[in-house]
Amino acid sequence: MPVLCLIANPADSELDPALAAAVVKETGGELNWLNHAIACEIIEPKSTEALELARAVIGTRKVDAAVVPTENRRKQLLIADMDSTMINEECIDELAAALGLKDQVAEITDRAMRGELDFAQALRTRVALLKGLQRKTIEAVRREQISLAPGGRALVHTMREYGAYTSLVSGGFTFFAEFFAKRIGFDEFVANVLEFDGERLTGTVADPIIDKTTKRERLLALAGERSLPLSQTIAVGDGANDLDMIRIAGFGVAMHAKPKVAAEAGIRIDHGDLTALLYLQGYADEEIVR
């Protein structure tokens, strides 16, 4: 039984009862609000083209639409990217800014996230440019330049409250992933390890590189350890190195993603914050742990 979800950004919602009613008129089905003026679901839309019809009605308004099955809707495993997904920034770009190299590094980052460059090679190239950066500067960047993406703590804490396991798997660095995994509330983190010579970066990253294959394999391993079918998993990310895990997850979500990722993911969230992943699972506002 399909469910059509309409989800807006809580900070700037353009979803109202009139828009929801207009979508129902086109698609058929039963309207149920999960969070008034933020998220609703249309249960059993009659049209087989409900998603296309909904998007046509929505037009340019900042409202996301997705069709999900009701079976296994609430997931028991979350695997998430970090940079530009659970946090708002790309950590390596902010480190480069401390050396006056942000534009140069950010261009490589952007191309890698669009899938135009080999991820491992692009990572090593960027890290080499950071050689000599002091640990205290990296700590200052982590403290002052990195911010949590809205809705992330609610997503993780709510899923854990209802029995899910949560994993932060990043192509970034443990220096940031460990810190933010704890702040957000993840059960575990996996990321690349920056190498130091005393208090300064050597310009190298330890092997093995955490890449798209690692992310996919971690999802498979965690599902296997918990005897979960992949239909019980949800994966979220924004870059090309997230696509392999997004493709195989029960809910594969492209979050404010690069065009290639958004085009290939089963679900795309262009406007909502990370609580959108809870509404996709059918959580009502009163069930969300904030």
From the N-terminal CA to the C-terminal CA, the straight-line distance is: 30 Å
Shape descriptor: elongated
Q: How would you classify the helix and strand content by structural class? A: alpha/beta
Strand order of the largest sheet: 7-6-5-10-11-12
Query: Any guess at the CATH architecture of the largest domain?
Result: 3-Layer(aba) Sandwich
Number of helices: 12
Compact description:
The protein is of the alpha/beta class.
Question: Would you kindly provide a written description of the structure presented here, covering whatever features stand out?
Answer:
With 290 residues, the protein is α/β, with parallel strands linked by helices. The chain folds into 2 domains: 1-71, Alpha-Beta Plaits, CATH 3.30.70; 74-290, Rossmann fold (3-Layer(aba) Sandwich). The protein is built from 12 helices and 12 strands. It has helices spanning 17-27, 50-58, 91-97, 102-113, 119-129, 135-144, 152-161, 174-184, 212-225, 243-248, 259-264, 276-280; strands at 2-8, 30-35, 39-43, 63-69, 77-80, 165-173, 188-192, 194-197, 200-205, 233-237, 251-255, 267-269. Helix 1 runs antiparallel to helix 2 (50-58), helix 3 (91-97) runs antiparallel to helix 4 and helix 4 runs antiparallel to helix 5 (119-129). The longest helix has 14 residues, at 212-225. The radius of gyration is 20 Å and the shape is elongated.
Secondary structure elements and pairings:
Blueprint: E1 2-8, H1 17-27, E2 30-35, E3 39-43, H2 50-58, E4 63-69, E5 77-80, H3 91-97, H4 102-113, H5 119-129, H6 135-144, H7 152-161, E6 165-173, H8 174-184, E7 188-192, E8 194-197, E9 200-205, H9 212-225, E10 233-237, H10 243-248, E11 251-255, H11 259-264, E12 267-269, H12 276-280
Parallel strand pairs: 5-6, 5-10, 6-7, 10-11, 11-12
Antiparallel strand pairs: 1-3, 1-4, 2-3, 8-9
Helix pairs in contact: 1-2, 3-4, 4-5
